[in-house]
């Protein structure tokens, strides 16, 4: 029987093992220690997870791709059913199948069953809803037990990142830990040192925690709504003066966890009827083409890739020739900044609250520790660095720090 640390993320998942050689992340897909939080259900046969799931979808294999699974925790979607192949499964069952597959791969590497887990969790699964937050944690704990963990406990993801960072310190610091993932932005102000790292009880060193349900997928959504969905008819007029095309289709298509809801047949029937009432039916034809081909995730992946590319280049041409020959979206950094401005402001406000709750001035922060893939986004990075401009910036393992920190905690709790 063995313990582990499990970082089930909105976009990616890692699992840390405790071995004779110390702590290490398990290889979950080939040699990769990260695995995308994605699952693909073919019409018959076994499902695929991770990169294999994404590849099956991109290559046009028949079936159903589901991604950003974690985002349904704390929502009414969790117990709703969705068609996968020739059956219907609840989203809870889908998450269980994904985590069971991850656990089995890690056990193959560990050579023994994994029965004890420290699960990562955001500071808030659900903003401003304590009951929803509690239900989300209880649901995730229940799923963990369903897949074979007998001892399940939780640690905040930014605290886990702090525990990983602390392993390399040679002096005491006050650090602001920023963990910006696919679904949430989480912050902690923590007092760290080599001596403190040996202590089991660390509550007194955690000066403040805060978080907001904003992550990389939200930046995908706002960019898609702002730059891509107008090409499919968002904001275009109806024939009746003063009315625009209903926007709900576009917001679902731009939101990872909602895309599959458009594939129920009802949506296409509604669009065929709507087409007769709009001023520009060719735009509705584009929307219908995406939905009929069940290519919403293709669109979301291309928007995500464009967002990531804008961290390195000034402009990206997003080709949409598969929707209509010659169609493309032209997106540049100012577009990303404009559409992300409100999200960045909310992240900055969350950091300010966290510092205030910790009773720490920005100048007292020795280090800014950044982890999570979305810390690479320029609007996010700017908001974080402005919060403590004199602090040393430390780049953590973008996708591995939280998983390793959870494993540090697992070794303490169960070792």
Could you characterize the architecture of this molecule?
The protein has helices spanning 50-58, 91-110, 130-146, 157-166, 194-197, 216-228, 248-253, 266-275, 281-292, 296-309, 333-358, 378-387, 401-414; strands at 2-8, 12-19, 22-25, 35-36, 38-41, 48-49, 64-67, 81-84, 87-90, 114-121, 151-156, 173-180, 185-192, 206-212, 315-319, 328-332, 367-371, 392-395. Helices cover 40% and strands 23% of the residues. Helix 12 (378-387) links the parallel strand 17 and strand 18. The model has no long low-confidence stretch (mean pLDDT 93). Strands 1, 2, 3, 4, 10 and 11 form a six-stranded mixed β-sheet that branches. It folds into two domains: 2-171 and 395-414, Nucleotidyltransferase, domain 5 (2-Layer Sandwich); 218-337, no CATH class. The protein is of the alpha+beta class and 415 residues long. It is built from 13 helices and 18 strands. This is Heat-shock protein. Pfam families: HSP70. GO terms for molecular function: ATP binding; ATP-dependent protein folding chaperone. Keywords: ATP-binding, Nucleotide-binding. InterPro entries: ATPase_NBD (IPR043129), Hsp_70_fam (IPR013126), YegD-like (IPR042054).
Architecture blueprint of SSEs:
Blueprint: E1 2-8, E2 12-19, E3 22-25, E4 35-36, E5 38-41, E6 48-49, H1 50-58, E7 64-67, E8 81-84, E9 87-90, H2 91-110, E10 114-121, H3 130-146, E11 151-156, H4 157-166, E12 173-180, E13 185-192, H5 194-197, E14 206-212, H6 216-228, H7 248-253, H8 266-275, H9 281-292, H10 296-309, E15 315-319, E16 328-332, H11 333-358, E17 367-371, H12 378-387, E18 392-395, H13 401-414
Parallel strand pairs: 1-10, 10-11, 12-17, 17-18
Antiparallel strand pairs: 1-2, 2-3, 2-4, 5-6, 5-7, 8-9, 12-13, 13-14, 15-16
Helix pairs in contact: 2-3, 4-13, 6-10, 6-11, 8-9, 11-12
Protein name: Heat-shock protein
GO molecular function, one term: ATP-dependent protein folding chaperone
Keywords: ATP-binding, Nucleotide-binding
């Amino acid at each position: 029987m063995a313990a582990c640390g499990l970082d089930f993320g909105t976009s990616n998942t890692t699992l840390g093992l405790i071995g004779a050689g110390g702590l290490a992340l398990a290889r979950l897909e080939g040699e990769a220690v990260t695995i995308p939080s994605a699952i693909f259900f073919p019409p018959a046969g076994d499902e695929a997870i991770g990169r294999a799931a994404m590849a099956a979808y991109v290559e046009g294999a028949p079936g159903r791709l589901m991604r950003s699974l974690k985002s349904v925790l704390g929502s009414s979607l969790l117990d709703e059913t969705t068609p996968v192949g020739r059956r219907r499964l609840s989203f809870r069952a889908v998450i269980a199948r994904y985590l069971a597959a991850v656990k089995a791969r890690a056990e193959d590497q560990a050579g023994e069953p994994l029965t004890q887990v420290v699960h990562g969790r955001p500071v808030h699964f659900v903003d401003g809803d304590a009951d929803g937050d509690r239900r989300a944690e209880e649901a995730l704990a229940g799923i963990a037990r369903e897949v074979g963990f007998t001892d399940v406990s939780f640690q905040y993801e930014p605290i886990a990142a702090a525990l990983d960072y602390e392993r390399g310190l040679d002096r005491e610091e006050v650090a602001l830990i920023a963990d910006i993932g696919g679904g949430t932005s989480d912050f902690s102000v923590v007092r760290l040192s080599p001596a403190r790292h040996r202590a089991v009880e660390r509550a007194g060193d955690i000066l403040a925690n805060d978080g907001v349900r904003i992550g990389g997928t939200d930046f995908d959504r706002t960019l898609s709504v702002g730059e891509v969905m107008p090409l499919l008819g968002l904001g275009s007029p109806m024939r009746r003066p003063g009315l625009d095309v209903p926007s709900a289709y576009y917001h679902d298509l731009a939101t990872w966890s909602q895309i599959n809801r458009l594939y129920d047949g009802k949506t296409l029937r509604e669009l065929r009827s709507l087409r007769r009432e709009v001023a520009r039916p060719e735009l509705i034809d584009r929307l219908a083409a995406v939905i009929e081909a069940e290519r919403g995730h293709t669109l979301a992946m291309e928007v995500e890739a464009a967002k990531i590319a804008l961290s390195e280049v000034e402009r990206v041409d997003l080709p949409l020739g598969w929707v209509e020959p010659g169609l493309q979206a032209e997106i540049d950094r100012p577009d990303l900044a404009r559409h992300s401005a409100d999200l960045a402001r909310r992240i900055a406000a969350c950091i300010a609250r966290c510092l205030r709750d910790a009773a720490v001035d920005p100048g007292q922060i020795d280090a800014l520790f950044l982890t999570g893939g979305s810390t690479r986004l320029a609007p996010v990075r700017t908001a974080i660095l402005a919060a403590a401009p004199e602090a040393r910036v430390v780049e953590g393992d973008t996708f591995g720090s939280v998983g390793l920190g959870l494993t540090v905690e697992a070794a303490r709790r169960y070792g």
